[in-house]
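Quick start: what a row looks like.
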Amino acid sequence: MSGARLRGLYAITPDALTSDPDRLLDACAAALRGGARLLQYRDKRSPAPTRLVLARTLATLCRTHGALLVVNDDVRLAIEAGAHGVHLGAGDGSLADARRQLGSAAIVGATCGNDLARADAAIDAGASYVAFGRLYPSRSKPGAPPADLATLTRARERWPVAVCGIGGITPTLAPAVVAAGADLVAAIDGVFGAADVEAAARAYAQAFDAGNTAVETGN
């Protein structure tokens, strides 16, 4: 993503909330109040019309809070909803096609496991950030292969794009992930599974220097 700076808490919506739009929107608003800088709308269950309404609402909500909305695995939905970009997993389609459709100012994120070669290919295809994980045991992704903090460090040294850590990262663990080289700390259950979503998001946000949490984007 040319000319962009991505840094801070990256909150990803859980499956458990997608069946209750009101709870989903309330929880996302709380996460944004707590300091989430990116929000990923991940919804594999709702019908297409519902996803569009929710994504549009979340895009507006993110802009209100000076944050960015990324849609999981659906380039067309990202475009129609006015989201800031898309995240694609290993089997979710072509990063290069997503970049062509979304344009140079959009966010295109890529799941890279623990594989620097996969990240290299993703960046060549136009990725704005590369995500590595799971870094710790995860309730959201218990079967995901493990990744190393050292991979974040190597990625940070190797490329100028944003580096994201994901998987089992609690607020207590977040400072170590940032110190290893992560620009973004992604969390699902750690944010949305908390009794107080806003407080949980704020605890993650404290892992970042308060002076560097802003997101600058041409979008």
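That is the whole record. Residues 210-219 have pLDDT under 50 and may be disordered. The longest strand covers residues 36-41.
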